[in-house]
Amino acid sequence: MKKIILVFIICFSIAKMNAQEEKVKPYNSEADAKADIANAVKKAKSEGKYVMIQAGGNWCGWCILFDDKVKATPILKKALDENYVSVHLNYSRENKDIFKELGSPDKYGFPVFVILDEEGKVVHTQDSGKLEEGKGHSTEKVMEFFTKWAPVKK
Phi and psi of 59, rounded to 5°? Predict the structure, then answer.
């Protein structure tokens, strides 16, 4: 009986580790970032939204924390989905020109957020450090950021 329990525990542990490894990562290093942003602008224009670019990488713990926070907090997810078309921009050598076009937002560290209007023009760049609280991001500060830079609904 002890062997059966031990085998069960080992199998469960391996399955859990595999599930964690298979977690979808928000940043795609293979993505055509220029096309993704252009498509997001087009979609935002047709839906009366702005584009929110979350720049960073899967190597960035704070980037993953922010992404997980928004997905797990219904009020934040709703505010993001209702007002923005979201794009994850991977910080890499291949995307350095895009970062320049966006005004070099990487100077703030990561993650950094760039809001584009429906025409693709930079409206605001947000230093994520101002949204932090303790060892994570403040729901209130993030909500204030999402609300402040959302497009005015007509």
Answer: -80, -10
Report angle CA 15, 21, 25 to the nearest 5 degrees: 140
Beta strands 50-56; 84-90: pairing state: parallel
Rounded to whole angstroms, how far apart are CA atoms 81 and 89?
17
CA 100 remoteness from chain centre: 19
CB-based contact 143:82 (threshold 8 Å) = no
Segments making up each domain of the chain, as ranges: 26-148
Facing residues of 90 across strands?
56
Residues in the chain: 154
Q: What is the pLDDT of residues 123-147, one digit of tens each?
A: 999 999 999 999 999 999 999 999 9
Q: What is the pLDDT of residues 48-101, one digit of tens each?
A: 999 999 999 999 999 999 999 999 999 999 999 999 999 999 999 999 999 999
For 26-148, CATH number? 3.40.30.10
Phi, psi (degrees; rounded to nearest 5) at 117: -80, -175
Distance from C-alpha of 148 to C-alpha of 116, rounded to nearest angstrom: 13
